[in-house]
Amino acid sequence: MPDIAASRKFIDLIRQASSKWANWDPPIEIKVGDFGKIDNETGELDVEGNIYDSTFQKSLKAQGLTIDLTDSSCQPQTGGVDDNMIMSSSGVKQGDFSAKPEVSFLNLASASVKAEFQFQEGKRGAVLVMHKPRQEYIPRNKVLTLVHKAVELHDKYLVTSTFKCPGYYIYLSNKSGERIALALTATSPIAAAAGLTAGGTASVDWWTDAQAAFLRKAVDKGGQYRYTPLYTLKHRRTPLIARLFRGETEEEIEDSLWPDCLTPWMPLDEDGLEDPAWEDVRQVLPAPSNDLFMIYLLERGRFLSPICGRG
């Protein structure tokens, strides 16, 4: 399975489980306010700009959109720190961590994360673990309603929130029905195992018995929020479609203008490739260059948008 296909498959599985988008390469930062198009081959966001950049602010002013994104009320907000966040795709069963002779030397009693996962044979499964994640997000009920009119965001995807953390673990199963275990452990002092701010006095790292090629993990020893494994992605809905979903007199609210985006690719098989039958359908469909065609697809529960991808 090529890495490109693995990336798209993992992103697709996590989106189905959470409605959020996974970052296959968490050390590459995704920022709140980033916008761009989805690469149809990898599933990753190709960032073209950020609404908080000075150039975007100047463009808003030139377009007559009177909103100052440098104002504190418009700047990204930061939520509290969670202990751990564990996500898994459909069919993956999480169990209690069971001690094994080969891992008895680890300080498992004070491990800040430990879990086991059972995967289905013949089916891909995805697991995403974030240690002490912290969410950053665009304030509601002001920013998105106004920037929706900016020409730069037409046919674009917008990052409205991110989940950053000092440690992450990503795993995509190999269809063998494997069972894997993982733990985030630290050496003495024991207090350091509860967090990652021990000032270099503790060595913190992931332990796992997973052997698959599609395993990615990292932890920042200093507790810095360097990784962005997960983010929320919205798609700008055209005013015509938004009105049809709102009703003519309903106030333009953020959720109608910026719905959660669906994937620009057709349903994937277990190896991350588009189903040939669906691919044949897409080849004969006209490009969604007008609102009526988009409405046709939305009414059938499937929003296909090649203009947001490369495919």
**What is the number of beta strands?**
15
Helix-strand category = alpha+beta
Give the H and E element order. HEEEHEEEEEEHEEEEEEHHHH
Number of helices: 7
Radius of gyration (CA) equals 21 Å
Q: Give the biggest beta sheet.
A: 7 strands, antiparallel
Unreliable runs: 188-200, 247-251, 286-311
- The coarse overall form would be globular
Proportion of residues in helical segments: 10-25%
Beta-strand portion reads 25-35%
Oligomer description: single chain
CA(first)-CA(last) distance: 19 Å
Question: How would you state the average pLDDT, rounded?
Answer: 82
Brief overview:
With 311 residues, this protein is an alpha+beta fold.
Key features of this structure:
311 residues, alpha+beta, 7-stranded antiparallel sheet, 4-stranded antiparallel sheet, 7 helices, globular
Describe the overall structure:
A hairpin with a 6-residue loop joins strand 2 and strand 3. 19% of the residues lie in helices and 27% in strands. It has helices at 3-18, 54-62, 143-147, 239-246, 254-257, 276-284, 291-298, and strands at 21-22, 34-38, 45-50, 77-81, 84-88, 93-95, 113-118, 126-131, 134-137, 157-165, 167-172, 179-186, 204-208, 215-219, 227-235. By secondary structure, it is α+β, with helices and mostly antiparallel strands. Strands 1, 2, 3, 4, 9, 10 and 15 form a seven-stranded antiparallel β-sheet that branches. The protein has a four-stranded antiparallel β-sheet with strand order 5-8-11-14, covered by helices on one side. A four-stranded antiparallel β-sheet has the order 6-7-12-13, with no helix packed on it. The chain is globular, with a radius of gyration of 21 Å.
